[in-house]
């Protein structure tokens, strides 16, 4: 049996309308991406890029055809939901071979965005809220690393027996 390799495009939806992210559902995003691929590359491109929408605009397609999908994304200028159009565009943040690499990139990207927000704070209350968010992210990561290294130490201790 042959294993098909995939590529994952991590995209950010950028819109001036703050209601856009709250009102758009995954079907609208999937439909807009499929329509852009079909307009740009026709039936061939649409068949090559059978798109799986998995949440935070993480698009999956076959490895051989990810460039077709990538080249069609700039042609998405709006998303439509419940007969309302929201002008927006997709910003491709990362192209990865696994979901895990995309997740790692997203964590780093979000951390950088929080640091930018921290530098642009206007009040002390905002600054404390963002610092709390940063610390909670960092503490969870440190705790996970410690628990993983603790598990490894426990494994070593068990194998070092008499």
Task: Describe the fold and architecture.
- The structure is a single chain.
- The protein is an alpha+beta fold.
- It is built from five helices and six strands.
- It has a four-stranded antiparallel sheet, sandwiched between helices. Strands 4-5 form a two-stranded antiparallel ribbon.
- Helix 2 crosses helix 3 and helix 4 runs antiparallel to helix 5.
- The chain is flat.
- The C terminus is likely disordered.
Provide the descriptors you would attach to this structure in a database record:
four-stranded antiparallel sheet; two-stranded antiparallel ribbon; disordered C terminus; alpha+beta; 5 helices; single chain; 56% helix; 162 residues
Q: What is the C-alpha radius of gyration, as a whole number of Å?
A: 21 Å
Query: What is the H/E order?
Result: EHHEEHEEEHH
**Could you tell me the strand content as a percent range?**
15-25%
Unreliable sequence segments = 151-162
Number of strands: 6
Structural class: alpha+beta
- State the helicity in percent bands: 55-70%
Please provide a brief summary of the model:
With about 160 residues, the chain is an alpha+beta fold. It is built from 5 helices and 6 strands; from the N terminus they run E-H-H-E-E-H-E-E-E-H-H.
